[in-house]
Write a structure and sequence with these properties.
Order of helices and strands: EHHEHHEEHEEEEHE
Oligomer: single chain
Distance between the termini: 21 Å
Largest sheet: 7 strands, mixed
Radius of gyration: 21 Å
Number of helices: 6
Number of strands: 9
């Protein structure tokens, strides 16, 4: 039977205990609706249809959820997200670090079969247009957290079981822009109650 190490989880250095909170926009429906807000709303619906016709499924999905205004969490396909090279690279770097730390503890101990809990903490990864236009439009940046167990055999071989969790506070940051398009008019849709910010979530499981 494996000896279970109950000390500090592997790989936590540099990770955050909590995911990033929403941005500092005004609260939902705090501002009065102006005529140009209705034009922005119509433009948002047209953009959603265009993205859908172009096959940008994730981008269209999150924008649709924003415009529906429920504010409920929105679940994305975390396995597809984890398959993106930039996300996979960030996750594999954490798994590699877990293995290094697990072997260091194993060598310092009795060198019997052992299991070590691991937790990366929350970390972020940037998704660019070159990686995926769909995911770039949908998220641009996402936070992830890996939790799991590293098992080391009596011979020093390692195996990792892990859970990949993704999260993002989805909103338009007032005062920012992308490709020359200002986000403030779209942020006002939340602030006037015509749309609502929400949290993106997702999870996937794996073994390495």
């Amino acid at each position: 039977m494996d000896q279970v190490d109950l000390s500090r989880p592997l790989g936590r250095d540099g990770g955050w205990a909590e995911a990033e909170p929403p941005c500092g926009n005004a609260g939902h429906a705090e501002l009065p609706v102006r005529p140009y807000d209705l034009l922005t709303l119509a433009g948002g619906h047209a953009l959603r249809v265009l993205w859908s016709l172009l096959g940008l499924r994730n981008a269209a999905g999150v924008l649709r959820h924003y415009l529906r205004g429920t504010g409920s969490p929105y679940r994305v396909d975390a396995e597809a997200l984890l398959a993106l090279p930039v996300v996979r690279e960030a996750a594999e770097a954490q798994l590699a670090q877990w293995r290094v730390e697990a072997l260091a503890r194993w060598r310092a101990g009795a060198r019997a079969a052992a299991a070590y809990p691991a937790d990366s903490g929350w970390r972020d990864v940037l998704i660019t247009r070159r990686v995926s236009a769909d995911w770039w439009l949908a998220l641009r940046c996402v936070e992830f957290r890996l939790t799991g167990t590293v098992r080391v055999t009596a011979e020093g071989a390692t195996a990792v079981d892990y859970r990949f969790a993704a999260q993002k506070a989805w909103n338009f940051d007032r005062g920012k822009s992308e490709l020359g398009v200002p986000f403030t008019p779209f942020a006002r849709l939340h602030e006037t109650g015509l749309a609502r910010e929400f949290t993106v979530t997702g999870e996937a499981f794996g073994r390495a």
